[in-house]
Amino acid sequence: MELYNALMAYAQNGAYPFHMPGHKRQMKGQDPYAYDITEITGFDDLHHAEGILLRAETEAAEVFGAGKTYYSVNGSTAANLAGFFACVPEEGEVLMARNCHKSVYHAALLRNARVHYLFPPVLAGGIYGSMRPEDIEAALLQHPGICAVILTSPTYEGVLSDAKAIADIVHAHGAMLMVDEAHGAHLGLAQAREFGTSAVRLGADCVSQSLHKMLPSLTQTALLHVQSPKLMKKTAFYMRVFQSSSPSYVLMGSMDRCISEMRETPQEEFHAWKAKLDETRQILHGWEPGDTVYGKDPSKLVIFTPEGMSGSRMCHILYEEAQLEMEMAAEDYVLAMTGITDPPEAYSRLQTAVLGIYEKYGQPGRRKTSAQTVALLGDTAQRMLMGQAKEAPSEVVDFAKAEGRIAADFVYVYPPGIPILVPGEEITAGILQRLREVQARELKLYGSEGLQNEKIAVVR
């Protein structure tokens, strides 16, 4: 019972969560064991919903403005997989933002898709900017066989792209637009328009949202919204494929409660949430992209570190000295994920702790564009399809012997789970340098075997 006991102890230790899930461990409810059931009389079947679950999904579609909404108890990961398979046929040609989540890459691998990449600009601190509609237009003209365009908006840091303009361009070329909006479930709520607008309402054909990231719902709860009628039957099938055949009623009950409560939450509560965010950002001189991006969801607080301090080190100090648990550590900043349930005292506690760090260790320095520019913006070439490289015989070699070889596995920092290297890509000197930089900044690399010892899997 080590894990269970550790969870029970952590729940009592006083640490405040500036991380997902959005309920922030404050929602009160009955013991989940009391209503952990299966498909018994009166409770419908998620994979053939005709009664209570169909009504729940219909309410979700009404709240978020979708033609059809599907519950996902396997998070946005299952929603992304199902959406991708519905939009892209076997060996289909797809245009993907290079900063997509690993679940989208896994879908492309399983579908044997032929991938063309879109490269977002990289801003100060290595933060990805908005996708440019003109870049998408150019790529669609260059590759007329593309059947779907897939992008992430908002990003982990809250950067939004112009989904309406992009949808118009994509549809003019006869393709589908799928948006990974895992971090934007709150954008779909009519009362929260000052945070931004969901791609569901802006013309996207297929949109995934994680309820648990930004709203008060249990971890692993998500939605897949579909607007295009011709996708609905396919999407329903693939949601059955990529989800458990024994979906948790505890999770589905949490989704139903969350959506119903958010539907009734007055606009004033969302306004109060944004006011606390604006105040905190002003006090901490938090990151504001200004005119460099199309839009910014203010719910994410990007807090840069003092000059010379890694994000991992700052996260450690915030936890040890103020019992504040952050969502993510990047090389030069930490990310605080907020929610509508955060009380005012949580923001005060964060403000005091961060200002104390700045006073003790120095103010955050001027950030240059990170070396991620090299690693993620076309420094490598795709030599094999992902699936071909993943299935090919492989070997593990030292970084010193890897230049010019073909990657046999993914390499990424998690969170946020954006691959630095993808199976089938050529390993360059720039990428190897990037991997060393990431490790030097106390961030862990995942994916390929041997990374912690400067080894990497390559195609034999």
Give the arrangement of secondary structure elements.
Layout lengths: L1 H9 L5 E3 L33 H13 L3 E5 L2 H13 L5 E5 L4 H9 L3 E5 L14 H10 L3 E7 L6 E2 L2 H10 L3 E5 L25 E5 H4 L7 E5 L2 H14 L6 H16 L2 H18 L10 E2 L3 E5 L6 H12 L1 E3 L1 E2 L3 E5 L6 H18 L10 H5 L9 H6 L2 E5 L12 E3 L4 E4 L7 H12 L4 E3 L7 E5 L1
Parallel strand pairs: 1-12, 3-4, 3-5, 5-7, 7-8
Antiparallel strand pairs: 2-9, 6-10, 8-9, 11-14, 13-14, 15-19, 16-17, 16-18
Outline:
This protein is an alpha/beta fold. It has helices spanning 2-10, 52-64, 75-87, 102-110, 133-142, 163-172, 211-214, 229-242, 249-264, 267-284, 311-322, 344-361, 372-376, 386-391, 429-440; strands at residues 16-18, 68-72, 93-97, 114-118, 146-152, 159-160, 176-180, 206-210, 222-226, 295-296, 300-304, 324-326, 328-329, 333-337, 394-398, 411-413, 418-421, 445-447, 455-459.
Lateral strand order in the biggest sheet? 2-9-8-7-5-3-4
Number of helices: 15
* Terminus-to-terminus distance: 43 Å
Q: What structural class is derived from the secondary structure elements?
A: alpha/beta
Mean pLDDT: 93
| Strand residue content | 15-25%
Number of strand elements:
19
Radius of gyration over C-alpha positions, nearest whole angstrom = 22 Å
Largest sheet properties: 7 strands, mixed
Low-confidence stretches: 371-377
